[in-house]
């Protein structure tokens, strides 16, 4: 990889992946609304609002690949979601089309399918059942990516990330946890594949309990190495009280499925 663009580079995953992917690309363009002050070898920072069409056009020019983490990452006002995730996704794919970018790693979310019960085992063909306006915006991004593949042959990995944090933060995340190392390996596999198509991948580690089956993405050869099992006995998870009738426990999206609209909360 010669020149890769990472959007949302000042955020949690952007920051973690910069370190994990050091040396993977010759040049890394880091972009975010928020500034990044300390740059490593080969890194350049460009401040950019994804909702600004002209800025995104300039940002994407000359890149070989895009790892798209930028945008609103939890439930928020519709205006913020509209700018970051809907206009932002459109501007990015349109810039990719105009500048001949062939492949995009799109950070989607498990909240696209968050209203499925936890007893269901989902795969790439399962119905979207978003649990929030945030989840709806990720569904828009996935459909947009499919459209740009079908019409313009821009390939995408639609990675429905579970919960990517250094460790699971609650009992739900024992099933949804994705380690940072497994995410970094997935990014490399997405760019190493001869052919990607427009493929849904559940971004989840090899946890003992899972709601997601990646059988349709087997061709990528991604085998997560980490497991939430090592955290299972930690006191903060064992002591958490859960109520099986609580919608936050019934549905895969957890608390996202329970809360009202952001403005009403
Ligand atoms: P984050 O909120 O830490 O980072 C997102 C970054 O995007 C922020 O630095 C923010 O400044 C930037 N951003 C927001 N609106 C923008 C705009 N209009 N223009 C330019 N930049 C903008 O989120 P995190 O955890 O790093 O997640 C990265 C991506 O992965 C997000 O798209 C999120 O939806 C997705 N994801 C993350 C999961 C996780 O467990 N961390 C789970 C599922 C999906
Ligand atoms: C997400 O989509 C969010 O970006 C992240 O902050 C977590 O809430 C994650 O989902 C999750 O479901 O745990």
TrEMBL record:
Superkingdom, natural source: Bacteria
SUPFAM superfamilies reported for this sequence: NAD(P)-binding Rossmann-fold domains
One GO MF term: oxidoreductase activity
A Pfam short name: Epimerase
Keyword annotations of the record: NAD, Oxidoreductase
Domain NAD-dependent epimerase/dehydratase stretches: 4-165
Xref: Gene3D superfamilies: NAD(P)-binding Rossmann-like Domain
Family: Belongs to the NAD(P)-dependent epimerase/dehydratase family.
Name of the featured protein: Putative epimerase/dehydratase
Organism, scientific name: Marinomonas spartinae
Organism taxonomic ancestry: Bacteria, Pseudomonadati, Pseudomonadota, Gammaproteobacteria, Oceanospirillales
């Amino acid at each position: 990889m010669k020149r890769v663009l990472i959007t949302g580079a000042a955020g949690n995953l952007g920051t973690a992946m910069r370190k994990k992917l050091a040396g993977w690309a010759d040049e890394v363009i880091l972009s975010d609304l928020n500034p990044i002050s300390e740059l490593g070898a080969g890194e350049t920072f460009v401040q950019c609002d994804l909702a600004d069409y002209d800025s995104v056009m300039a940002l994407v020019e000359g890149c070989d690949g895009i790892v798209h983490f930028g945008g609103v990452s939890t439930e928020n006002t519709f205006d913020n979601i509209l700018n970051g995730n809907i206009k932002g996704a459109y501007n990015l794919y349109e810039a990719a089309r105009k500048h001949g970018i062939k492949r995009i790693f799109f950070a989607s979310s498990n909240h696209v399918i968050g209203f499925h019960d936890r007893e269901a085992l989902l795969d790439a063909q399962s119905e979207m059942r978003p649990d929030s306006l945030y989840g709806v915006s990720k569904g828009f991004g996935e459909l947009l990516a499919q459209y740009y593949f079908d019409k313009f042959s821009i390939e995408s990995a639609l990675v429905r990330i579970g919960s990517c944090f250094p460790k699971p933060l609650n009992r739900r995340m024992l099933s949804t946890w994705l380690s940072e190392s497994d995410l970094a390996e997935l990014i490399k596999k997405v760019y190493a594949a001869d052919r990607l198509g427009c493929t849904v991948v559940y971004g989840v580690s090899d946890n003992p309990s899972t709601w997601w089956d990646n059988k349709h993405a087997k061709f990528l050869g991604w085998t997560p190495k980490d497991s939430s099992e090592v955290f299972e006995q930690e006191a903060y998870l064992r002591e958490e009280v859960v109520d099986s009738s609580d919608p936050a426990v019934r549905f895969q999206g957890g608390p996202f499925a329970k809360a009202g609209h952001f403005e009403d909360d």
